[in-house]
């Protein structure tokens, strides 16, 4: 049997938390490591790569303020959250040309939320046949692109599309 080692996943599997208590609150004031994952910043919201992606290009749109549900968001936060989700969709479509996208919010543990108390929206590019038995039986994912390569691919597309929408 062959083994695919992914020791970096241990923090995720064991539920390790950031020293600040919330990984997204820490990401709102990023250190050098977290800044490498940040691909776009708005006034009240930012777009960051998922450290444990389901697919290449897996993004999360995250409000800076810590709150749990859509009902807790201000109108301005909600508007920017949706606008940046739309922008992220456009960026992923431009950069990856996926056959589809999963866009979703998991509210609560029963819904699959990994970070329970800080609302965020996932965007995952999808292609026919992009799942395999590694995920099902090996609890591992095979991704052809590193997170730094993904960030380098997406940042200029965010910049270009933001510039185009302002013109």
Give a brief rundown of this model.
By secondary structure, the protein is α+β, with helices and mostly antiparallel strands. It has helices at 10-13, 23-28, 32-35, 75-96, 133-138, 147-166, and strands spanning 38-41, 45-49, 59-63, 100-104, 121-126.
What does this molecule look like?
The chain has 167 residues and is an alpha+beta fold. It has one domain (7-166): HIT family, subunit A (2-Layer Sandwich). Helix content is 37%, strand content 15%. It is built from 6 helices and 5 strands. The chain has helices spanning 10-13, 23-28, 32-35, 75-96, 133-138, 147-166, and strands at residues 38-41, 45-49, 59-63, 100-104, 121-126. Strands 1-2-3-5-4 form a 5-stranded antiparallel sheet. Helix 4 packs across helix 6 (147-166). The longest helix has 22 residues, at 75-96. The model has no long low-confidence stretch (mean pLDDT 85).
Question: Which features characterize this protein?
Answer:
alpha+beta, 6 helices, HIT family, subunit A, single chain, 167 residues, 5-stranded antiparallel β-sheet
- Major sheet attributes: 5 strands, antiparallel
CATH topology: HIT family, subunit A
- How many H/I helices? 6
Amino-to-carboxy terminus distance: 56 Å
Annotated CATH architecture: 2-Layer Sandwich
CATH class: Alpha Beta
Shape: globular
Q: Which sequence of SSEs, written as H and E, runs from N to C? A: HHHEEEHEEHH
Whole-number count of domains: 1
Number of strands: 5
Question: Could you tell me the strand content as a percent range?
Answer: 5-15%
Helix content: 25-40%
């Amino acid at each position: 049997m062959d083994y695919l080692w992914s020791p970096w996943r241990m923090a995720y599997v064991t539920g390790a938390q950031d020293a600040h208590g919330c990984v997204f609150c820490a990401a709102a004031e990023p250190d050098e490591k977290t800044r490498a994952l940040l691909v776009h910043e708005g006034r009240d919201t930012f777009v960051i790569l998922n450290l444990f992606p389901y697919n290449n290009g897996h993004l999360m749109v995250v409000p800076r303020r810590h709150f749990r549900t859509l009902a807790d968001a201000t109108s301005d936060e909600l508007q920017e959250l949706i606008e940046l989700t739309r922008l992220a969709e456009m960026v992923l479509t431009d950069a990856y040309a996926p056959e589809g996208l999963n866009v979703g919010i998991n509210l609560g543990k029963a819904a699959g939320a990994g970070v329970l108390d800080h609302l965020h929206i996932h965007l995952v590019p999808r292609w026919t046949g992009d799942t395999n038995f590694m995920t099902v039986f090996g609890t591992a994912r095979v991704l052809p692109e590193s997170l730094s390569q993904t960030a380098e691919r997406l940042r200029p597309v965010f910049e270009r599309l933001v510039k185009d929408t302002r013109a």
